[in-house]
Amino acid sequence: MSILKLKAYIAAVKYGSLTRAAEALDYTQPSISHMIHSLEEDYGFALLIRSKNGVQPTDNGSQLLPIMEDIVVRYEHLSEAVYAIHGLDVGTVRIGAYASVCVHWMPEVLKLFHEKYPKIAIQLFEGNSREIHEWLDAGSIDFAIGTIQPTDTYPFLPLKDDRMLAILPKDHPLTQLEKIDIHTFEKELCIMPYDDTHKDAQAIFKAARVHPNVTYQIRGDEAIIAMVKRGLGITLLSELLVQDHRDDIECRPISDECVRTIGVASKTEIKSLSPASRTFIPFLQEWIQKN
């Protein structure tokens, strides 16, 4: 079995184009086409439907695709394990993370990690809650750094509690209070994220049986903060997310202390992740404890 043939087919399906698959794998288009044709000959049936608009998997190809993806991932884990036995730390780690984690944790973490493990490549993907869940389910990332909800079934390693705060304009009357009652969000004009992007805030309101008085619903964190700065309403966001904006806004804790737990979520047990991933995660844990 040729792992390269499997990678060629997986890339062709992913991009819907032999040319784009060739670019992604740094091969020529005829080489990719030849590898996939050879794979079809090995299996005795077509794997791709080819047309002027690109390529797509046949029914048989779709059935085999997740198995192929699993084989490629396990082969990469095997290669990393062999290198680890020889005392060489190599491999690639694909991480999906919230914007707050990407901005406030990862730049320093990746710098220090690269200095210690220069042969381990890190691919970092910034996403919201919905996107990260999709990436985990599709196997596009090795693990996520974010939060999970009670209904999620992902293995989860807690890293740090992150307080959820009421975010207010500088001149808002509520700034006179030391803490904000969660039910205040039913009375005040609120700027809230969409349900699929910030599940932590939604979970807190749901648990308290609070229905925020939503006047604007925004998908981007920076846009929400900018609108609060302009006095268009209040919101509920995490402390980590707003730490670079503390000079322009006011933050108050919720009366009933509310936190979200940031951690590592994976599709499989963390002990089953690649050697490179299992090198990165303890490194991240140690950095968080020191900072």
TrEMBL record:
Keywords: DNA-binding, Transcription, Transcription regulation. InterPro entries: HTH-type_LysR_regulators (IPR050950), LysR_HTH_N (IPR000847), LysR_subst-bd (IPR005119), WH-like_DNA-bd_sf (IPR036388), WH_DNA-bd_sf (IPR036390). GO terms for cellular component: cytosol. Residues 1-58 form the HTH lysR-type domain. It holds the Pfam family HTH_1. The keyword Iron does not apply. GO terms for molecular function: DNA binding; DNA-binding transcription factor activity. Gene3D superfamilies: Periplasmic binding protein-like II, Winged helix-like DNA-binding domain superfamily/Winged helix DNA-binding domain. Belongs to the LysR transcriptional regulatory family. This is Transcriptional regulator.
